Each structure stands twice: as C-alpha cells, then as structure tokens.
Q: What sequence folds into this?
C-alpha cells in the first residue's frame, strides 16, 4: 500500500508555499485533516478538493485564493471545520455551503465577499461558530435562515453592508455568547428579542443607524462582559437598569446622542474597567460613587 493511502492528516501551514493547490489532492482518499494556512497559495480551489470524502477539517486561512468554493465541495458532508478567512475571494457565498450539514465552525472573514446570505445556510443546524466579518455582504442582517441556527455560540458579521431591521427571529439564538453586528447599515430600533440571549457575553451593535432608546431588555443580560452601542442615532438617557450588569467590563455608549446624567447605579457594575460616554449630551456631575470601582482604568464621560 502506498503512503498516500495511509495519510490522514497533512499540515503545511507557514511553509512559504506559492502557486495553486494541486489537483493531485484527489489522490489522498483517506485524508481527514488538511491545513495550508499562512502561505501564498493562489488561484482557484480545484474541484478535486471535493474528492477526499472523509475530510473533517480544512484550513486555508490567510492565502491568496480566489473563487470561493467549487460545487464539488457539497460532497464533503463530513466537514466540521472550514476556515477560509483572509483570502482574495471576490464573489458570493454559494448555496452549496448548505450541504455541509455537519459544520461546527465556518470562518470566511475578510474575503471581499458580496451578495446576500443564501437561505441554505439555515441547513447548518450543527454550526456553533460563524465568522463572516470584513466583507461586503448585504441584504437583511438576520435572514430567516440564520434564526434557526439555535446552536450558534458566536456570530460575527462585523463590517459588512447589511441593512434594514434586526428581525425578531434572532431571539431564537439563545445559545449565543458573542453577537457582533457593528459596522453595518442597520436601522430601526434595537430588537427587544436580543434580550432572549441570556448567555450573551459580548454585544457589539456599534457604527450603525439604530434609533430609539436603549431597550431595557438588553440590561437584563447579566452575563454581558462587553456592551458596545457607539456611533448610532439612539436617544434618551442611560437606563438605571444598567445596575443589573454586574460583570460588565467594557461599556461604550459614545456618540449616540444620550442625554441626562450618568446614573449613580453604574457603581453596581463592579467589574467595569472601561467606560466611554463621549460625544453625547450628558449633563451633571460625574457621580462620586464611580470612584469606588476598583477596576476602572478608563472613564471618558464627555
């Protein structure tokens, strides 16, 4: 038996590889894990990449690849880990991704992707980590297809071109620990449905066009570590319910047109280390009680 029939894992990351991926990859029928990260591999992903049917992990992170995924990828139904981030793809996320129903991790950050998300992403019911930030994806932010991915732990859509409202079905993602929707073109009120995400630790909705007041339901997410609402069109005052966020470490409410005083209840957020309230219409004195916050290192009130 030849060596290629024994080979189950191949890691050639950080090897200064250049040129395209060889079509001979199809000659490794028992390959389970392939890592070619941090090289200078270019060209398209060959259709033969869909031939190692037992492939579980594919990592092509940080290369120069173009053309996201050949249709043959739909045959890789055993894949649980797929990392394509930081390549030069310039196209759409194709419907074939929906065939990879065992995926646990999907990373396509910073790849110049366009178009909207295909409804077939809703077939990835085992997905826990979805990273699509730093592209030019558009359409509605939380398509109905994403609202059924109830196992998601991290959802990162940072720095795209999503617009419209956050749909209420996002509240179905009750296992989310990290939700990053900052740097898009979102409008309307911040959805009260986010308050269903009781496990949420990081919430980034900054640099959008949200209007209205800060929903009180956000301030009952008692596991929040980071709350970033900066650079929106919100108004009103900082709700006194912020006292519920006892493990909150970083609060960024800068440049969102808040008014009124800084609530003294902020002293109950005993883990705070960074607070930014700059470029608002905050009035009154800085509460002396904030001096009791032993971890506070940065306070930018105006």
A:
């Amino acid at each position: 038996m030849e060596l290629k029939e024994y080979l189950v894992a191949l890691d050639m990351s950080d090897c200064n590889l250049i040129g395209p991926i060889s079509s001979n990859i199809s000659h490794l029928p028992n390959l389970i894990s392939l890592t070619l990260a941090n090289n200078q591999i270019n060209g398209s992903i060959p259709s033969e990449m869909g031939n190692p049917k037992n492939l579980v992990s594919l990592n092509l992170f940080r290369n120069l690849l173009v053309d996201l995924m050949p249709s043959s990828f739909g045959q890789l139904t055993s894949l649980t880990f797929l990392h394509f981030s930081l390549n030069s793809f310039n196209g759409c996320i194709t419907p074939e991704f929906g065939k990879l129903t065992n995926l646990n991790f999907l990373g396509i950050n910073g790849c110049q992707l366009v178009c909207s998300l295909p409804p077939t992403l809703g077939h990835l019911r085992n997905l826990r980590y979805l990273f699509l930030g730093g592209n030019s994806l558009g359409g509605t932010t939380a398509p109905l297809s994403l609202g059924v991915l109830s196992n998601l732990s991290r959802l990162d859509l940072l720095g795209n071109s999503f617009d419209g409202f956050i749909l209420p079905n996002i509240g179905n993602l009750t296992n989310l620990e990290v939700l990053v929707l900052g740097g898009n073109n979102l409008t309307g009120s911040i959805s009260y449905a986010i308050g269903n995400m009781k496990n949420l630790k990081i919430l980034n909705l900054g640099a959008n066009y949200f209007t209205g007041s800060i929903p009180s339901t956000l301030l009952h997410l008692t596991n929040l570590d980071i709350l970033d609402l900066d650079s929106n069109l919100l108004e009103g005052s900082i709700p006194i319910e912020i006292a519920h966020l006892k493990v909150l470490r970083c609060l960024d409410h800068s440049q969102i047109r808040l008014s009124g005083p800084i609530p003294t209840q902020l002293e109950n957020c005993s883990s705070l280390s960074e607070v930014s309230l700059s470029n608002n219409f905050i009035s009154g004195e800085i509460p002396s009680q904030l001096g009791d916050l032993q971890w506070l290192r940065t306070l930018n009130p105006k």
Q: What stands out?
A: Helices lie at 3-6.
